[in-house]
Design a protein that fits this description.
CATH superfamily of the largest domain: VirB8 protein
Distance between the termini: 101 Å
Strand content: 15-25%
CATH architecture of the largest domain: Roll
Oligomer: single chain
Largest sheet: 6 strands, antiparallel
Number of strands: 6
Radius of gyration: 29 Å
Order of helices and strands: HHHHEHEEEEEH
Helix content: 40-55%
């Protein structure tokens, strides 16, 4: 009997050891799951265009090409009125508010009121797009001017078109001098960590593109 009793005790001890091991494994799995859940879902990584020669830069440094891409993307979205400027313009100001400084948002809201009072928005559609051969790669020093660690001046050369119904009422080639600042306060709403601070000076008309390019724009 003692031999069987000893065997039972040994098995019970082994079972307890297995249960303890399973408990430890379960605890580790729970901690890993919590760590995975708390990890950031989106990471913004600024890479230079060509990595073949390697790159060394300070962790807080944002390359000019990333600043230009941000500026063009947000400004283009802000000026894309697909149906009716009277409704699209204020909606976009609100939707893109995380990418605008408070002063710029107030300036755009004031611009909306002026345009609305002048009847420049109702039933109008609007779009802006980059003029060929006038992008960042054609003249990087002109396109993005670094004014400090957290401040940039971006010059966008864009074609602007507005339609009233099916009739085109405006086509212009304009240089928009935009101020961009670092605003890394809410990665969930603004993963870029940048914000438009509206215009550095008044937008300026520029010469039309070459005739071959102009035909492409029509």
């Amino acid at each position: 009997m003692s031999r069987f009793r000893n065997e039972v005790i040994r098995l019970e001890s082994h079972i307890k050891t297995l249960r303890t091991g399973c408990g430890l494994i379960f605890g580790i799995a729970v901690m890993m799951a919590v760590g995975w859940w708390d990890s950031p879902r989106n990471l913004t990584i600024h890479n230079p265009p060509d990595l073949r020669s390697g790159s060394t830069r300070k962790w807080w440094e944002i390359p000019p090409e990333s600043v230009y891409t941000f500026s063009f993307y947000i400004f283009q979205q802000l000026n894309r009125w697909p149906a009716d400027g009277e409704k699209d313009y204020p909606r976009l100001i609100h939707t893109l508010s995380a990418y605008l400084t408070p002063s710029c948002k107030a300036e755009l809201e004031s611009d909306f009121q002026k345009r609305q009072n002048a009847s420049e928005l109702r039933s109008r559609t609007r779009s802006v797009y980059e003029i060929p051969a006038r992008g960042y790669g054609d003249n990087p020093e002109l396109r993005v001017q670094v004014q400090g660690r957290d401040h940039w001046l971006v010059n966008l050369d864009l074609a602007t078109e507005e339609f009233y119904g099916s009739e085109r009422v405006k086509q212009a080639f304009v240089r928009y001098p935009l101020k961009v600042v670092r605003l890394d306060i809410d990665p969930e709403k603004n993963p870029f960590g940048l914000a438009l601070d509206c215009f550095d000076s008044l937008p300026q008309r520029i010469s039309s593109p070459p005739s071959s390019t102009a035909k492409t724009l029509k």
